[in-house]
Amino acid sequence: MDPFRFIVALGATAVLAAAGANPLAAQTAAPGSLVHWPGEGIERCLVGDRAFAPTVVGGERGCLVPVGLTRTADVIAERDRDGLRERLHIGLGEYPYSVQRLEIKDRSRVDLSPENLARVQRENALIGKLWGRQGKPRFSLPLGAPLERMPAGGRFGAKRIINGEPRSPHTGADYAVPQGTPVLAVEDAVVALAGEFFFSGNAVFLDHGNGLISMYFHLHEVFVEQGDEVSREHRIGTVGSTGRSTGPHLHFGIRWQGERVDPALWLGEPASIATVR
Ligand SMILES: [Zn+2]
């Protein structure tokens, strides 16, 4: 097993449920992980200001609770079931990811000029609107692979030191493959956004409904446009090194209910997702 994945799995294991008026978090889940909370007759799931439909994980329908990568506090999840509101308290675990040191020679992509900073802020505002999208779920786990052959990859969550200075953590998984390698939609979707961005380069954002967005960055070519309907395995573009990138690779990311979570959890066996009963 990839040691990186192993650490993630350990961080999210053994979560204790305590439904009712006195929730108690005896165990924890790592930032960037998921906790599945299955049960019969769930009408909807609630986390923060989000309400969403249950998800089937490993044949069991339940609330798939995101523990966002940048969270700094415990997660309280709720669900409506048989007319009752139930509550789950998930303690926030230690940050389990490694430190990555990078040298980026193009300093203009690290220390931003006022013009570039304004551009990034405009792009972030545009991208930020995607996280609020809802709609009927049109996905099932595990998702398909974004590359026909997946190399070992990852570094999700890595704390980055760029040119010697601490920067924000890595929010997706990187897969180093040659430029021109086809990039595939991981599931049926509508193209929520496709364009050229300062950091992400040529990028595609796919909306799979129910608050699930998949992201594909640094592409060489893009074959889809905003509003297109795509099916699982559709070729949406090719691998490149556009934007802030140190060489050809696919950066693949997932947002679930607006939170950044480890994409490997969505691509791997659903059994690797922590479950609480
Ligand atoms: Zn990346």
Written overview of the protein:
The chain is mainly beta and 277 residues long. The chain has two domains: 3-95, Sandwich (Immunoglobulin-like); 99-267, Glucose Permease (Domain IIA) (Distorted Sandwich). It is 10% helix and 39% strand. The chain has three helices and 21 strands. It has helices at residues 3-11, 114-128, 264-267, and strands at residues 28-29, 33-38, 42-47, 50-52, 55-57, 60-67, 75-81, 84-92, 99-102, 159-162, 165-167, 173-175, 182-184, 189-197, 201-207, 212-222, 229-230, 235-239, 250-256, 259-261, 274-275. The strands form four sheets. Strands 12, 13, 14, 15, 16, 17, 18, 19 and 20 form a nine-stranded antiparallel β-sheet that branches. It has a five-stranded mixed β-sheet with strand order 1-8-7-3-4, with no helix packed on it. Strand 5 (55-57) and strand 6 (60-67) form a beta hairpin. The longest helix is centred in the middle third of the chain and has 15 residues, at 114-128. Mean pLDDT is 89; it is low at 1-23. Zinc ion (ZN) binds at residues 170, 172, 174, 251. Zinc ion (ZN) is lined by residues 170, 172, 174, 251.
